[in-house]
Write a structure and sequence with these properties.
The chain is 37% helix and 22% strand. The longest helix is centred in the middle third of the chain and has 30 residues. About 2% of the residues have low confidence. The protein has 13 helices and 22 strands. With 465 residues, the chain is of the alpha+beta class.
């Protein structure tokens, strides 16, 4: 394979960048990144934008200083802008050093992109890296999106991260370096079996290549096909998720059970998984996600009208009638209720949710401008002013409109109305000064609500959302 020609055609065909873009190349001094740097230098002027080299000295090996000097000198001789940073040994953690090193490296890359107004960051990941990554993720488990492996391109910092060598094998890269007599350094830690990737590279991948010499191509095609399929299905899942989500906030999500259960079972599971991952857990890793989805489906299809289950990370799910609620539990939070608000004639009172309630006197034969809003009429001789607006209390009862005797618990009225428990404590009642409930705001009127009589003076109580 003529790698220079193929690489150039690939850049043209996929429009990886424009001549006006600004590129930074992550170079470790290993064979992969040195080949990538050389290929960029071989691009024709019409395809080669401004470019610079980024290097991180992790101080994990004794040869790292020598490698840094080699690369810096090379860039100086070829007049390539060079930027480096060292990760001091005293900053190394005792555990998780691979992840910490990666975080340090990519933080530096992002800073340099912003500083140099770069549009693209290039890394030298290749087809063997892709095979190893997909295998490790399949064995480790996780979400199907992760099984795609390494993407050719993705958003990064102020621009795009591109892996232009992803379709070439390690053998192709070694062959190119030999033909062009490139100098590079071998990282001795790449043979250390204490690292997971090295064990796959040394023990598993060679066996797969013996089984089928086209295994790299097959894994590349698998990754590409899976990426295409997910791109299509994720749009459908997201659209359906927006349909079933009735209400949402950072600590509360309401799902319409009827709408969700009208979907195919496969789509039900994917929608619930999407809501949990993207909304509830906000992309945090959750090992029991599949189990949670199954439990939520069971909760919704249960014969019980009301049931609940605990979820990880301080969340719980509650089923109430046709709704499913996902809410963050906070034992330390103490529920508070707002103080009572007095309502006088010709006045508006604003509620906590932004709605307002007004009380206005209307003379005989006068049409109120508020009759198109939610309202009730009351006889001024049957109530004691001022009126009071407050949250409902335990034991509250009212005599419903159409009843002259007998009182019904507010709690039972809300249950009959299928109002979720979370919303019941936030319901407001409007009483007169003696405590007689006139209106369960937005839900039920009392016996004190009367028809409009045009030949008498009346009060109109108005509720505006």
């Amino acid at each position: 394979m003529d790698l220079v020609f193929d690489f150039t055609q690939n850049c043209k065909r996929h429009l990886l960048w424009k001549p006006s873009d600004r590129i930074l190349i992550a170079v470790s001094s290993g064979v992969d990144s040195m080949v990538l740097l050389d290929l960029i230098q071989h691009l024709p002027d019409s395809l080669r934008p401004w470019y610079g080299v980024l290097h991180v000295n992790h101080e994990l090996r004794s040869s790292s200083i020598e490698e840094e000097r080699f690369l810096e000198n090379l860039c100086y001789l070829k007049k390539i802008p060079y930027f480096s940073r060292s990760w001091k040994k005293e900053e190394h953690p005792e555990k998780g050093i691979e992840l910490a090193a990666r975080n340090f490296r990519y933080t530096f890359f992002e800073e340099m992109m912003e500083l140099n107004k770069a549009t693209h960051l290039l890394t030298a990941h290749h087809a063997d890296d892709q095979l190893e990554t997909v295998l490790m993720r399949l064995v480790r488990g996780g979400q199907i999106d992760g099984m795609v492996g390494i993407k050719d391109q993705r958003k990064f910092g102020p621009g795009v991260l591109v892996r232009p060598l992803l379709h070439y094998s390690k053998e192709d890269i070694y062959a190119y370096s030999k033909i062009h007599q490139l100098a590079y350094y071998e990282d001795e830690t790449n043979s250390d079996p204490m690292y997971t990737r090295n064990r796959y590279r040394q023990r598993i991948v060679p066996l797969l290549k013996l089984e089928n010499d086209q295994v790299l191509t097959h894994f590349k095609d698998f990754s590409s096909d899976l990426s295409d399929i997910l791109s299509i299905t994720n749009k459908v899942i997201q659209e359906k998720s927006e349909l079933v989500l009735v209400e949402s906030s950072s600590v509360f999500y309401e799902i319409d059970k009827t709408t969700l259960l009208s979907l195919e079972p496969e789509l039900q599971r994917q929608v619930l998984k999407y809501i949990l991952l993207n909304k509830v857990y906000k992309f945090q890793p959750v090992e029991t996600l599949r189990k949670q989805v199954e439990e939520l489906v069971g909760l919704m299809t249960s014969s019980k009208s009301n049931a609940q289950l605990d979820l990880p990370k301080g969340w719980k799910a509650r089923r109430q009638y046709q709704q499913l609620f996902l809410e963050k539990t906070n034992p330390e939070k103490v529920k508070t209720t707002c103080s009572e608000k007095k309502l006088f004639p010709e006045q508006w009172v604003f509620l906590e949710d932004g709605a307002r309630v007004g009380l206005f006197k209307r003379d005989a034969h006068v049409i109120s401008p508020y009759e198109k809003d939610k309202h009730i009429w009351i006889n001024p001789n049957q109530v004691v002013m001022p009126l009071v607006i407050r949250h409902r209390k335990k034991g509250d009862r009212m005599t419903l409109k159409g009843m002259q005797t007998g009182r019904k618990k507010i709690k039972d009225i809300l249950i009959d109305q299928k109002i979720p428990i979370k919303m019941r404590d936030e319901v407001s009642v409007l009483t007169d000064s003696l405590g007689e409930i006139i209106w369960l705001l937005n839900y039920k009127e009392s016996r004190l609500s009367i028809p409009r009589e045009t030949d008498k003076i009346q009060y109109i109580l108005v509720y505006q959302e």
